[in-house]
Specification:
7-stranded mixed beta sheet; alpha/beta
Length: 300
């Protein structure tokens, strides 16, 4: 079975991505990794340029950016977005089949790309080859398995229902990987993969941005990330396509009964989220397992 969403990640490229980061945390990343010294930048899976825009303000003022993106629609969007900015070139290519370049890069980076890649280590090895000695790998990836399981007892789920929900998403992740669509929990495996790909000086931190939700749900961050209250209520009950979730769960070893129990728990949690928004009683810290990894290409 193939993923039906085309172009890739279209449903995720929304304005909320511009609110994923606190400005002072980005300043910290610049200081920690000396991003202001990076003059040749290569970005894998650039999408429509959300990460690019932020990096432009962190890297050297005269930095050039080469943006790799496989989707022609996103290439066109990148060219429109940066048409008046010199030094940015969008290249239509797949990160699993990279073109050659005439010089090494100071920085190779990606944001929420590796979670979609079957052979992550090969992409990391390609990044190492494209970096100058001592060049920086900067990778931003989540653990969405943990993110999907952030229900609390006040949701009303019983222990059995939460167990069924956990089993559903656990099997979904296994099946998604077997179908060749990557690992949405890739952040947990990246330390081993980055080192095995030949990088040194590995460091990691967690994005400090939380996505708070509290009544009356009208702050700027809440309305940008979740939409208006009416939109948030509607979105609360919009689930992943049932047939696709079942396909992944089946491939991941969950039987039909386990799937039905998990799906029922998922629907119940969605309804209670919607009801909580309607009643003005929903409150959440909006935790997100969203990690930043930095490592250096070896000098020899």
């Amino acid at each position: 079975m193939s993923e039906t969403r085309q172009p890739h990640s279209a449903e995720h490229f929304t304005n909320d991505r511009d609110h994923w980061w606190n400005a002072d945390y980005l300043d910290l990343l610049q200081q920690r990794y000396a991003l202001q010294t990076c003059r040749r930048v290569l970005e894998f899976g650039a999408g429509i340029g959300h990460w690019t825009v932020l990096l432009r303000g962190l890297c050297a003022p005269d930095a050039t950016f080469t943006l790799i993106e496989r989707e022609p629609e996103w290439i066109a969007a990148l060219e429109r977005r940066f048409s008046d900015q010199p030094g940015i070139a969008a290249v239509c290519a797949d990160v699993t089949d990279m073109p050659t370049f005439d010089a090494p890069f100071d920085l190779v980076t990606c944001q929420t790309l590796l979670m979609h890649i079957a052979d992550v280590e090969e992409v990391l090895r390609a990044a190492r080859r494209l970096l100058r000695p001592g060049g920086l790998l900067l990778v931003v990836e989540p653990n969405n398995l943990a993110n999907r399981l952030q229900a609390t007892p006040d949701s009303g789920l019983t222990p059995e229902e939460f167990g069924a929900l956990a089993a559903l998403w656990w099997a979904w992740e296994i099946g998604r990987t077997k179908r060749g669509f990557g690992r949405e929990w890739i952040a947990e495996e990246l330390p081993r993969l980055i080192v095995r790909a030949g990088f040194t000086n590995l460091t990691a931190s967690q994005n400090d941005k939380l996505f708070l939700r509290y009544p009356p749900y009208d702050t700027l961050d809440q309305t940008v990330v979740h939409g208006s209250l009416t939109e948030a209520i509607a979105a609360a009950t919009e689930l992943e396509p049932r047939t696709q979730v079942w396909d992944y769960c089946l491939a991941g070893g969950l039987d039909a009964l386990g799937f039905e129990r998990g799906w029922a728990a998922l629907e119940m949690l969605a309804r209670r989220t919607s009801d909580g928004l309607c009643a003005g009683s929903l409150s959440s810290a909006g935790l997100a397992n969203f990690c930043v990894f930095g490592a250096r290409a070896p000098f020899s």
